[in-house]
Design brief:
By secondary structure, the chain is of the alpha/beta class.
């Protein structure tokens, strides 16, 4: 692991903070959630640092970045551009996980001039509902039997706008093992925090203007790849495949033996896909 340099860049209504490390082509990591703390990507950063100049930052809504909104997809795109500007990266690779993968594809569609390429890691799709309904059904089926009632209760509270950050993290702890291919060999959940405001604001827009987003993505000249865990609860056969098939400049790489976080279960799989783009 190389030494990490912290940075702070100006953005609308405040600042965004993160770190850079490594050497090689510039690649900016985009965390999932939305509204999740970015530290869970540290292991992926360590894997990439020997071959890439890696950057990562906390999206708005949680410290050490600004806590202020607006929490919209447009603002999230603008924030990525602010980070690229602040780092002096005129064009870069981006690699996003889950919601961050969706954000990476939105950058391909809406800010192609800033990208060399984009990698979406087990993402929400940009076609239809992005696979959200199928994902929710599969996660419900994977919920531990002894905790299904509690998970259902927490989900209902969240949907009613009555949940708290502690509720969200409790739900994530219950469901953590469901994200992996092998439920008997699940790594401990890293310390995480969550912004419900960021989550609710951005997720309310995910299914808006899907036809327009897909059209812009299809016409973009920027290459992008999608890495999907073969055993992920995310319906890669639906969401990822349909998103990759939009463009002749895209590819889908399915990773056997991996779930929603493929760098945990199949180290090197994300790095190999980035090599293909770089």
């Amino acid at each position: 692991m190389s030494a990490r340099e912290e940075f702070e860049v100006e953005a609308d209504g405040g600042s965004l903070r993160g770190w850079t490390a490594g050497s090689g082509p510039d690649v900016l990591l985009l965390h999932g959630g939305p509204g999740l703390s970015y530290s869970y990507l540290d292991g992926l950063g360590i894997e990439l640092e020997p071959e890439f100049h890696v950057g990562a930052f906390q999206q708005r809504g949680l410290e050490p970045s600004t806590l202020e909104g607006p929490f919209t997809i447009v603002q999230a795109i603008d924030d990525v551009v602010s980070v690229l500007d602040g780092l002096g990266w005129e064009r870069a690779l981006v690699a996003g996980h889950s919601w961050g993968g969706y954000l990476a594809m939105r950058l391909v569609a809406d800010r192609p001039e800033r990208l060399r390429g984009a990698l979406a890691i087990d993402p929400l799709g940009v076609v239809g509902d992005g696979g959200m309904a199928a994902f929710a059904t599969e996660m419900g089926a994977r919920a531990p039997k002894e905790a299904r009632e509690r998970a259902r209760e927490l989900d209902e509270r969240a949907m009613a706008g009555q949940g708290t950050p502690d509720d969200a993290l409790e739900s994530l702890r219950i469901m953590w093992g469901s994200y992996f291919a092998d439920p008997e060999n699940v790594p401990p959940m890293p310390p995480l925090t969550m912004s419900l405001e960021a989550y609710a604001g951005i997720m309310s827009e995910i299914s808006a203007d899907t036809e327009g987003v897909a059209s812009r993505l299809a016409s973009s000249e920027v290459p992008y790849g999608i890495v999907a865990g073969a055993a992920s609860p995310m319906p890669w056969g639906q969401a990822a495949r349909a998103s990759a098939e939009l463009s002749p400049h895209a590819f889908l790489q399915v990773v056997p033996g991996a779930g929603h976080l493929p760098w945990y279960e199949v180290p090197g799989s994300v790095r190999d896909a980035l090599r293909r783009l770089a």
